[in-house]
Write a structure and sequence with these properties.
The complex is a heterotrimer of chains A (323), B (539) and C (280).
Chain A: H1 2-28, H2 33-37, H3 45-55, H4 61-73, H5 88-123, H6 128-142, H7 145-159, H8 179-217, H9 220-227, H10 232-243, H11 245-261, H12 264-269, H13 275-284, H14 288-316
Chain B: H1 4-15, E1 33-38, H2 54-63, E2 68-69, E3 83-84, E4 87-94, E5 97-102, H3 116-126, H4 133-138, E6 142-148, E7 152-157, H5 164-170, H6 177-180, H7 192-195, E8 203-209, E9 213-218, E10 231-236, H8 240-248, E11 254-255, E12 273-288, E13 291-292, E14 295-299, H9 306-314, H10 318-326, H11 339-344, H12 355-364, E15 377-378, E16 381-382, E17 384-390, H13 394-408, E18 413-419, H14 421-430, E19 435-441, H15 449-453, H16 469-480, H17 485-498, E20 501-514, E21 517-518, E22 535-536
Parallel strand pairs in B: 1-10, 1-11, 17-18, 17-19
Antiparallel strand pairs in B: 2-3, 4-5, 5-7, 6-7, 8-9, 9-10, 11-20, 12-19, 12-20, 13-14, 15-16, 21-22
Helix pairs in contact in B: 9-12, 10-13, 16-17
Chain C: H1 7-13, H2 15-33, H3 70-106, H4 108-123, H5 126-136, H6 142-151, H7 155-169, H8 172-179, H9 184-195, H10 197-221, H11 232-238, H12 248-279
Helix pairs in contact in C: 1-2, 1-12, 2-3, 2-12, 3-4, 3-6, 3-7, 3-10, 3-12, 4-7, 10-11, 10-12, 11-12
Classes of the chains: A mainly alpha (323), B alpha+beta (539), C mainly alpha (280).
Chain lengths: 323, 539, 280
């Protein structure tokens, strides 16, 4: 289909534009990686020269950009300046599984409970139950994620000592622990960070779903379905909800990048070894190779998420195909 | 549709692990395991690959030994007071030569004995400025390391000076030549040796889970004594809150300075833990810029007046503010000297906190509130100063806010510029500040004072352009006199009288260790290096 | 379909909407009128000797870690937080709605170009933009901060509005209006806009909470307001380590934020209801 080809082509162009923009913006921000390495002691000239040769941070921007592109196409993202040259690809590969795990869990919880709550509220639109649910979900949304996380850690980790206060695995787990024990351990460590991340955003999903569902329930075709005597479940999910999908798909496209970007605050208070903290440290130390590496990944997720949302929307709603 | 209840039950069942096992593995923990709540992520424990990272050095100190360690006094001067490690004894052949005899029992963890060739190899690798610039600059006065047979190392120096022993033993560590000679220096960081280093110290490397932990296990055959602490876990938790929670939940047995956490009060008086104050080489101070930040070729319009600087120092309640932030063991010194350095030197007394004297000084120089707006002024210009604080240094931000309020009541307007760390460094190096809230780690040797507090240091670590030729002469004399304490006293007194900075705190860290560990000593600069000598009380 | 009714009347008639407006007005009034009656928010009496006092006479919401009165700081923080919330959100929601409508209704290459621009913008971290601004101006004054927060916050809203417009465009009433010869502008503002009231109301409510907390995160990096100016988000951040020992330091500003978000929500809800019932 021509539409699909066009869409993919524009996605690729956007990706290139975004990454180039980040590349140049990054080098325009004040502060440079090498001065940080010599914060309180002056660096000997020879050492500085060596580092400049290695990372090329004093070359003109266009030259640096060409070098970066050439290396990227050859599969290398350079070495981290702050971490003594460790390959960026290794650094990212080390952390991606953790981020994906947490992101996927949180996103799944978010959409499952958010959609359910939104629909539930829309059905009881205007009743006290709906209003209280709004208050609760908005309070959760307006609470900063780190506050929520710390409160949960304090309650379950310090006071009640039911759950671990952080990390992905128990460091004291014996080497010969079986797969069941390992999975159980992982789940135990995943509960609080995933709960924090999803609680913070469920409010948003529910809000949009509720608004869209309220509108959808008023549609003519829904009333027709009811009049026809169809069971409530079918009316709700098969007829009304299909019309309330739009915002959910858009939200999905917007939040997909979180899967790879990770959340800095949540990752740091739970010591979750994800990409969020890597990116954060990279920005703080102006570690250009690391920033670009993560940026490439996140931009791909943003562009890809938008593409997927458009695709899904078109597939689910035939009316859009004529547009 | 699976009922919600069933799903929840399944999840909980999975979360509690196999039936019968404790809820948390910690409960079944071996008391001889030490779990440390650690702020950094050690990447490589191999000497010459530490980079600027303290974490790498601290882990390395448990795996790789030096010829001799600094004694508990941390004296870097002379040949005495060092503790034998790889070297059993040493003697001086002439003023430019030291000879070390290696301990025949010393072994690499793969069984191979440690030989003189390893010591020479380690030195040669460390002195290469391309790969280890920091170490190379310090080793410029060491001419050579040579092996005489298997067990003897001869070190020759380029000139006579009092810190020869320190230079020979502290900076360059022996490396296993039989494993590394074939690997060129530039490939070392990506070699397999980094992920499985072989050392000669009390602990051997077990594993590293990136950004989660580093695990070490005791080397039962360690020639200086089998460690009682069988396992060490460095749990990497970069966020201060995460480390605090590790201690509060009992997951971690030890932690670094509790006063580096916000709200340290919740970590004081924990019954299961013991508290250990350890002096450090760190100094927190506010430097005065002697140059105009708008045009660094001109002198500063307000701060070049020594009376104003003196007044600002008098107006700052250094002791209260720094103790509220860093804990009760902190000192506010009279000269820029850290607690460790201060043990060897005669430090001038701390200037008092005297707001009345400060006001008198300011008024005597013409700083009076002529227009009644609450801020003193002179010749139409207000007494307005801006202080740069790095946003990541939370304790300094808190102190600066308190300082701002304290100065306000004295008619001094202090504006806070809390800025991102990289931007802070850039502005600092460019001299774009009135006051700069800095913190630094000093050398254990007093000669390090030249870097920040002498005219010679301008263009290097002396960012404030503080330059007093008298100080330079006195420092030069003290260095020539083999770092005699008496001669340093004059230099420090002169620096103190110049008031080049508000010396907020000379830090003493308070470490916390679970009570079941005894005979605990924490080495300043590398606190966990003595863990192999700790004892474990069996319940 | 009738035209949109006169705005605020509708909200006022709705009890929920009325409550929301009253709450917001009250917050504003307190922020402007209360400070002379409260202790100085900057003062740190007895520095070093006491701090974190629990709520009681003299300090009705207690004191924080520097022994500053929490109530006066919450009131003081209202200035910054409300200004940021109202200003930045108004900007971002309006721009987002306009762009979303334009993209959704026009379709074709306009849609493609706009949405791809939004994609690029979403990919760039806000942090870089702000760091560059710091390089250009030494400190970021409040109006500029509001402008930047608003200008970088509309991307998501545009996508959501566009999704809604795509759905509406296919409905009969739009076809009918087009057949009757109504101009595209008329259709967009008189017919489409009221019907995206649902997602717009939701977006506004959520954006308020977002922006207040974002400002706090920026202060943390030194890009927001500088000490001693209080802001609700900044107070919540500072109070983080005292969660268990002095909960009032984070609860007080936290409740202020939640109240604001709930009030805005009530107003948004009222508007949504008004336009939906009008549509029938």
């Amino acid at each position: 289909m021509t539409w699909l080809l066009g869409r993919v082509a524009s996605a690729i162009i956007t990706y290139l534009m975004a990454t180039t923009l980040i590349f140049f913006l990054m080098r325009l921000t004040p502060g440079d990686p090498l001065s940080r390495l010599s914060e309180d002691r002056p660096m000997p000239a020879e050492a500085r020269q060596h580092l400049l040769e290695l990372y090329g941070t004093d070359l003109p921007l266009t030259v640096q950009y060409r070098r970066f592109l050439r290396a990227a196409f050859a599969g290398s993202l350079g070495g981290s300046i702050a971490q003594g040259g460790r390959p960026v690809t290794t650094l990212i590969a080390e952390r991606i599984p953790a981020t994906l795990l947490l992101g996927t869990t949180a996103l799944a919880l978010n959409f499952i409970f958010g959609i359910w709550l939104g629909v539930w509220q829309a059905r009881r639109h205007g009743t006290p139950a709906d209003q209280w649910a709004s208050v609760l979900s908005l309070t959760a949304y307006a609470t900063p994620a780190f506050w929520l996380g710390l409160a949960l850690i304090w309650l379950f980790g310090v006071e009640l000592r039911l759950l671990p206060t952080g990390f992905m695995h128990d460091p004291l787990l014996p080497m010969n622990a079986g797969p069941w024990e390992r999975t159980g351990d992982l789940v135990r460590h995943l509960i609080l960070p995933a709960a924090t991340l999803s609680l913070a955003t469920i409010g948003a999903t529910a809000r949009y779903q509720r608004a869209a569902m309220i509108d959808a329930l008023e549609l003519g075709c829904v009333r027709t379905a009811r009049v026809k005597g169809l069971p409530e479940g079918a009316v709700l999910w098969r007829h009304a909800w299909r019309n309330a999908l739009g915002p959910m798909l858009a939200l999905f496209g917007l939040w997909l990048p979180l899967l790879v970007a990770g959340s800095v605050f949540v990752e740091s208070i739970f010591s979750w070894p994800g990409l969020g903290t890597l990116a954060w440290e990279g920005i703080g130390t102006r570690d250009y190779p690391v920033i670009m590496g993560v940026a490439l990944l996140v931009s791909a997720a943003v562009v890809g998420g938008s593409l997927m949302a458009d695709l899904l929307h078109r597939w689910l709603d035939p009316r859009l195909r004529t547009a | 549709m699976i009922p919600h209840r069933v799903l929840l039950a399944a999840l909980l069942g999975l979360a509690s692990g196999a039936p019968g096992s404790p809820l948390l593995a910690q409960e079944a923990r071996d008391p001889a395991t030490l779990a440390i709540a650690y702020p950094r992520n050690p990447g490589s424990a191999v000497p010459t690959l530490w980079g600027a990272d303290i974490a790498n050095r601290e882990v390395s100190d448990l795996m790789f030994l030096r010829l001799a360690d600094l004694g508990p006094e941390l004296r870097t001067v002379g040949d005495k007071g060092f503790v034998p490690r790889l070297a059993r004894k040493w003697e001086r052949r002439d003023p430019l030569t030291l000879v070390f005899e290696l301990d025949p029992r010393a072994r690499w963890q793969d069984g191979t004995p440690v030989t003189a060739a390893d010591v020479v190899f380690g030195f040669e690798r460390a002195r290469n400025p391309r790969y280890t610039p920091r170490v190379a600059t310090v080793l410029t006065r060491v001419r050579s390391f040579a092996a005489e047979g298997d067990r003897r190392v001869v070190v020759k120096f380029a000139e006579k000076y009092s810190e020869q022993m320190y230079d020979a033993t502290y900076h360059a560590l022996p490396l296993p030549a039989h494993l590394l000679a074939a690997i060129p220096p530039e490939s070392l960081s990506s070699s397999a040796f980094v992920s499985n280093p072989v050392g000669n110290g009390p602990y051997r490397w077990v594993r590293r889970v990136p950004d989660q932990l580093v695990e070490l296990a005791a080397d039962t055959g360690f020639f200086l004594g089998k460690p009682q602490v069988r396992r060490i876990l460095f749990l990497n938790a970069a966020a201060a809150e995460a480390r605090a929670n590790l201690i509060l939940s009992g997951t971690a047995d030890a932690s670094d300075n509790i006063y580096s956490f916000p709200n340290p009060a919740r970590l004081e008086k924990l019954p299961a833990y013991q508290y250990y104050p350890v002096p450090t080489l760190e100094l927190i101070y506010i430097s005065f810029n002697f140059r105009d930040p708008a045009d660094t070729s001109r002198p500063h319009p307000i701060l070049t007046d020594q009376a104003v600087r003196h007044a600002l120092v008098l107006a700052t309640d250094r002791v209260t503010i720094s103790r509220a932030t860093y804990g009760p063991f902190v000192r506010s010194p009279g000269a820029p000297v850290s607690p460790i350095l201060g043990r060897a030197l005669d430090v001038p007394p701390t200037p008092p906190y005297d707001t009345l004297a400060a006001i008198r000084l300011l008024e005597s120089r013409g700083w009076i509130d002529h227009d009644g707006d609450g801020v003193r002024d002179k010749d139409g210009k207000p007494l307005q100063l801006r202080i740069n604080v790095p946003s990541q240094a939370n304790s300094r931000v808190v102190m600066a806010t308190r300082l701002q309020e304290a100065y306000r009541s004295l008619g001094i307007e202090l504006q806070l510029d809390v800025i991102d760390g990289s931007v802070w460094t850039a502005r600092r190096q460019a001299g774009q500040f009135d006051l700069d809230f800095a913190g630094g780690s000093q050398d254990p040797a007093p000669s390090g004072l030249t870097q920040s507090w002498s005219c010679a240091g301008i263009g290097g670590a002396n960012m404030s352009h503080y330059c007093d030729p008298k100080v330079d002469t006195l420092i030069a004399r003290a260095v020539r006199a083999d770092n005699g304490a008496v001669v340093w006293r004059d230099a420090l007194r002169q620096i103190a009288d110049d008031y080049p900075a508000i010396l907020m705190a000379a830090l003493t860290n308070t470490y916390v260790v679970n009570r079941r560990f005894q005979n605990v000593t924490l080495r300043p600069g590398s606190p966990w290096a003595n863990v192999w000598q700790w004892k474990v009380a069996t319940p | 379909m009738s035209a949109a009714p006169e705005g605020w009347r509708v909200v006022w008639d709705n009890p929920g909407g009325r409550a929301g407006i009253v709450i917001l007005a009250l917050l504003l009034a307190i922020a402007i009128l209360a400070p002379p009656f409260l202790p100085n928010p900057r003062a740190m009496p007895d520095l070093g000797r006491t701090s974190l006092q629990s709520p009681g006479p003299g300090h009705w919401l207690g004191t924080d870690r520097d022994n500053r009165d929490v109530l006066s700081r919450v009131v003081g923080g209202a200035r910054v937080s409300l200004a940021v919330a109202v200003g930045a959100v108004a900007l971002s929601v309006s721009v987002g709605a306009l762009v979303g409508m334009l993209a959704g209704y026009s379709g074709g290459w306009v849609d493609t170009v706009l949405m791809r621009l939004v994609d690029s913008a979403l990919a760039v971290p806000r942090l870089f933009l702000l760091l560059i601004m710091v390089a250009i101006m030494e400190r970021i004054p409040l109006p500029v901060l509001i402008l930047v927060l608003g200008a970088t916050g509309w991307f998501g809203t545009s996508r959501l509005v566009r999704a809604e417009v795509l759905r509406l465009r296919a409905l009969d009433f739009v076809h009918a209006a087009e057949a009757l010869g109504a101009s595209r502008r008329h259709i967009a503002f008189r017919h489409l806009l009221p019907n995206v009231a649902g997602p717009l109301a939701a977006a506004t409510t959520l954006a308020v909470g977002d922006v207040i907390l974002l400002e706090a995160g920026l202060s943390f990096l030194g890009l927001g307001v500088q000490p001693p100016t209080p802001s609700w988000g900044g107070m919540i951040l500072e109070a983080q380590p005292y969660l268990a020992t002095a909960p009032w330091t984070s609860l007080a500003p936290g409740i202020a934020v939640v109240l604001t978000v709930l009030a805005v929500n009530l107003v948004g809800e009222a508007m949504h209801r008004a336009y939906t019932s009008e549509r029938l």
